[in-house]
Amino acid sequence: MPEPSLTTWFLDALPAGRRPAPSDVLERALGQAVSAARSAHPELSSVTDEALARHLASCTGGPEELETLQAADVLLALASALGNGIALQELHRRIAQVVPRAVARLRNNSAFLEEVRQILSQRLLVPSDGATARVLDYKGKGPLERWLRAAALRVALNLIETDKSPREQGDSAIRALPDQGGDPELLLLRRRYAPEFKQAVETALRNLSTKERNFLRLYFVEGLTVEQIGAMQGTHKSTVSRWITRARETVGLQARTLLGDRLKLSAGELESLMGLLQSELELSLFRVL
Amino acid sequence: MCPSESLVLDFVEGALEGEEADAFHQHLDHCQSCQRLVAEVARAEASPEPKHGDRLDRFLIVGELGRGGMGVVYAAFDPQLDRKVALKLLRGDASQSHLTSSEQRGRLLKEAQALARLSHPHVVRVYEAREVGDQVFVVMELVEGHTLGEWLRERPRSWREVLEVFLKAGAGLQAAHRAGLVHRDFKPENVLIGKDGRVLVTDFGLARVESVDQTPATARAAAAARATVDLEGRPLTRTGALVGTPAFMAPEQWEGAPADARSDQFSFCVALHLGLYGFRPFDGVHTADLRRAVLSGQVPPAPRGSYVPRWVRRSLVRGLSVAPAARFSSMGEMLSALARNPLQRYRAPLAVAASLLLVASGAALGAFRANPAEQLCKGSEQKLAFAWDGSRKGAVREALLRGGSPFAQDAWTGVERTVGAYAASWVSMHRDACEATRVRRDQSETMLDLRVQCLERRARDLEALTNFFIHGGPEAVEGAVQAAYALPPLKECAEVDALAALVKPPSAGPQAALVGEVDRKLSEVRALAGANRFEPAIELAQGTAALSRTVDHAPTRAEAYFLLGLLRSRRGDGPAAEEALFEAALSAEVGHADRLAARARIELVIVVSELQSRLGSVDAAIREARAALGRFGADAELESRLESAVAVALTAQDKCEEALPHLRSALQLADRAYSRDDPRRGQILTNLGNSLRCTGDFEGARVRLEEAQSLYATALGPSHPEVALSLHAIANLLFTRHDYDGALSYHRSALQIRQRVLGPNSALAAQTLADVGVDLIAMKKNKEGREMVRRSLAIQEQALGANSPKLAHPLLVLGHVEAELGDPEEAVRVLERALGLLQGRDDDQLAVTRFNLALALSQVHRDERRARELATQAREYFSRRKDVRRFELESIDAFFAQDRPL
Fold first, then answer.
1. Whole-structure pTM over 0.80, yes or no?
2. What was the ipTM of the complex prediction?
3. Which of A16, A34, A89, B459, CA to CA, is 20 to 30 A from A96?
4. CB-CB: which of B44, B245, B246 is closest to A149?
């Protein structure tokens, strides 16, 4: 029986298939992570080295990842999950700080912010169905605040979603329609062909790849910038921009063909209809996506 | 099962690859919630918040001040203008689609720009609104201090303190409402109290821009939230502007209706209730309960033992009405109801000045301490800057010209010249005081201190005056130039012997603070009094005098009582004035404030002489005054005042002849004491003219009165009411001399000024119109004159009401002219009406009316008995004043001498 060490605990916590060989490098990386966590939170001594080392194993695979790990925040999350009073207090403080920053722009209302804060605290700390507390989902990649922000946003979005009555949800697309200035011809066309047009766009969208559809959504529906989408793809924004233009054209062309087939319109008629409905395309994308 | 937060973060970062990425995309394609989450996380990741040292546009971030629903507020430095500012970064509303975001930013910008145009002492100044990328931010005045909420929690406050602060904040709201801006989220956390004591409302109107999403449905959804919430939104720091903070929201806001100025009024009253009683009028553990409480309109009764006066509570409860229409029609109306207490009413505008004073004097003291000794003789201008510098000058100019008063330009010219000269002489005296000790070394440190302290007091007087100009509203314009001339003379601060003799004020401790407090209040009193605002001045003076009784420094006490006495005397409250002036004189003598003692004694002469029952003591008063002046030494100004006082005393005894030499010598002394254009010289000239007229020297009188008139026109501007008044004096003089043409032309000039300045429908202009009519009638242009008088009567009826005793004069003239024109019936009718209006009076006018009615009645041979009765009453009155009313008496005797049947 070897002397229990950080490495033995760490390796023991990993599933057999993923265990690296014990090494000095690993021991050193573990030692550094643990002492970084300890010096940041000396008050959390109720958490044993063993518990910390075992938890670190669930956060990371090897020594390289250990080096960039936010060990102090991991310790805080672990201690909170274990019910350490000081850690809980600190976590609550950080949640209270993060929530308004993250969520206020979704809805400016103290009651709402407070509700998000409470639900988030509950979700992170109260284990459901015998599972571990969700705060342990934080794996130390990036600061805890960043992770809390994402979690807060999720809670907030869910709340907003449940708030909306079905009627409201149905209305939202209609309310989003900009006032077209009441051009009677356009209004008539829109009323007559809108269902067909919508269907045509839907079909055309289905022909895109999942990825294309997702990014088109993020761009048109969620209003992300090409720069932000570029970051997700690891590409430059001009690439994203070109790509979105192309996807939109594809959808437009396909929708037009589909519409021509379905309505049995002549080329000329279709042309003038498309001309009038051009402005509708973007709108339809918005509604259909 | 949705991907974990860690995965979402990885995806947004572009850290997912291969299968993991594909699986994520697959899920995203079908999960709308995750699409939104990815978008929001991406947005949050993409806009890292500025930290200390970062640059935002041209601004250098210094630190974070607070954050709230509206966005984050940073302290920043503006290198371009070399000042610290607060930057508020406004967040766009992400729950709206991107389709509206640029439009929304535009609206934010527009709103902020509207705010930037609003400049008010009780509104946090917004300098500009800027847009960088898709970020809108507002550059604001940086207010160091704390929120009203913190101030209220700090320690228990008296209702007076609380009301005073709220009245200021309310004035800020009112100004915004006038500019068409609604706050929409007024609460104690949105009112800042600066370290300097200023009260400023912040986060104006911006609330609405953010609240477009706040439909009734979402408001109700929020209201239904299970959670117990911090209804005051307290943790959200001083800048936390939650839209429509539930605890302070008006019923209509709960109902989802648009908020207007009256909603602000409601929120204001909720906050005021909290301030006055320590709890909010509506409460609930859950927002739903709160909503119910607000909509019920049930304001809880005032707690037992509350000192809050009833008028305050009444106004408060009205502001909390559920129906907006049941509240006050405007913030202004409510504020004046809240400040209904006469003391409060006048203190509200003054309190502004008081707090500014506190700041400024503190700053001045700080400046003195901070300066090493050798620097002291430089920068005297800066020492006065808090009272008068380029920017204050600009502010005064703007304030005076703002109301568009017809003589505003003249007022400004006069103020600029007078105050400019005062400031220049202050600066040179300040420098001289310093150089005498530091450079020439012929003066002690102690004397330097005394002189500087004296000058500081005068600087505060100047500051109080300029504050009054800036905040005094349109009424400040009329008395502006006289007020500037009435600044206390600076030469006292150079009178080394007198300063040395003065009993020293306590140098430290609560007594020193008390002296400072009394001093500051006296500066305000002087500013108000100088501008003829006697009512508020006397209110403040009374309180200050009472306060000064607790001060262990006789000269300070003397000063307070002197001002009080002076004001009471101006208001004609003789006995009370005498009492105060006597106290002032005694205190001044005890404190070796010899000049003040002399001044008090001189004013006593005037007061005592006007108390006719005590004529005997006038001589004694004059003797005392001379003695006091003798102790003080030669002083042309005081001697001139004493001579005037003696003349006033003699005139009160109808000894015009004897008054004349005193007035002449007063004028000679005034020529030495004042500049030629000083309005106080004008007063002496007018007195002299009136005395000359009284002695029958009409030509001499006319010369003096015209001199006075041209002096006023030069000093105060040709359209000033004082000029109209002196034109009247000349016209009346000419009328007495039967020079009706001359009288008519002067009356017409006066009429022109009054009509232009006051408007053709003002009662005062109408009175002059009647005078023009009288002139015409005297010239036998009866019909033309009657027309004027009728017009005058109509205007005055309109302006003053049909029962005003002031109508008696035009009616009397009308009665006379109707009789002249051969319609005695009409004359009787008109004169009966005049008589009815004069019920209960016992004066010249009543007697003249009675006699005229007697004449008219006998003319129509109607009621001879009543005619004789009226004539007898008139005779009885005039015989009491036979020395001055001989002519009237003789006329009545002639009436009786006519042989008429009984």
1. no
2. 0.85
3. A34
4. B44
